[in-house]
Amino acid sequence: MDDALVIGGTRFIGRHLVEELLEHGYDVTLLNRGSHENPFADDDRVRRIEGNRTNDSALEAAALEVDPDAVFDCVAYYPKDVQAATRIFDDCEAYVFVSSGAAYGREEIPKREDETPLADCSPEQAVDDSGATYGPRKAEGDRAVFAAAERGVRAMSVRPCIVYGPHDYTERLDFWIDRVNRFDRVVVPGDGTNLWHRAYVGDVASALRIVAERGDAGEAYNVGDRRLVTLEEMVVLIADQLDTTVEVVTAGPRELEAGAIEPDDYVLYREYPHVLSTAKLAALGWESTPIGEAMARSVEDHLESDRDGSEHEPDRESEERVLGILDTF
């Protein structure tokens, strides 16, 4: 495969994917609305076609203009998006849909692609745009991939868990890096052993390329760090990269109540462990970046950016009330 069309491609996962494809000799074309700054605007190796991917005519025009070998769909948020793309690009060598670990419909450890059932998706959920229906919509997108494969399309799906790394506009990890960078004591909800599987963005990008090149039609592949760390371990890893030390203060629901905080208010906290099996992807030859190296790159990017995670709760003032209560025990 030589020519790749990336639908999206300028913000986070798509940006890293473009860099991955360029490193492996692909000619890359982007299809997007142009509503975000294009980091490849001055790179003559990357073409850009303006178009709204929710408009089938834009996809059809791109298919005629580019005739791509591989299509990477980074911004398909509704089942109809996947249905349209797999129809329009039905003769490409590979169509890869960026799904999500949130597509799974049952809590189990670990979640496996061919065993753990997908979430149901009602007709109403399929067109909803709220966060509550994100997982069901991704699950239905996966079903569209499977249906396309049955029609002979080499369509596949990649399911990342929580993605982190440079250029992460969600600022989820930035919240924690900022806390460690500014304070000697960092509040961690629960007992610190919470597990929410995370995936370094560079590994997601390489997974997408490898699945396009080596994956099987109609298959889904989980992607996540091969070494999982608890929330407390993550905070310590961040401190190591900042060359500092912090006191991790764990706080249960009763202690957090002093600051009117719920454990779920914390970004990257999840009461029930969310763990994905990545063995199927590893069997294709994919490898995970060592966690220390991934965190080092993430911390370096945070320090060079203006991101601080301040849009996420809780605020430090509320945490100080919790720390004050804990200090009286």
Structural class: alpha/beta
Average pLDDT across residues? 97
> Cα distance, first to last residue?
63 Å
Strand order, biggest sheet?
A: 3-2-1-4-5-6-10
In words, what does this structure look like?
With 329 residues, the protein is α/β, with parallel strands linked by helices. It is 37% helix and 16% strand. The strands form three sheets. The protein has a seven-stranded parallel β-sheet with strand order 3-2-1-4-5-6-10, with helices on both faces. It has a two-stranded parallel sheet with strand order 7-9. A two-stranded parallel ribbon has the order 8-11.
Could you write a compact summary of the structure shown?
This protein is an alpha/beta fold and 329 residues long. The protein has helices at 13-23, 56-66, 79-88, 123-126, 134-150, 172-182, 201-214, 231-241, 253-256, 279-282, 291-304, 316-327, and strands at residues 3-7, 27-32, 46-50, 70-73, 94-98, 155-160, 162-164, 185-189, 198-200, 220-223, 247-251.
Features:
329 residues; globular; two-stranded parallel ribbon; 16% strand; alpha/beta; single chain; seven-stranded parallel beta sheet
List the helices and strands and how they pair.
Elements: E1 3-7, H1 13-23, E2 27-32, E3 46-50, H2 56-66, E4 70-73, H3 79-88, E5 94-98, H4 123-126, H5 134-150, E6 155-160, E7 162-164, H6 172-182, E8 185-189, E9 198-200, H7 201-214, E10 220-223, H8 231-241, E11 247-251, H9 253-256, H10 279-282, H11 291-304, H12 316-327
Helix pairs in contact: 1-7, 3-5
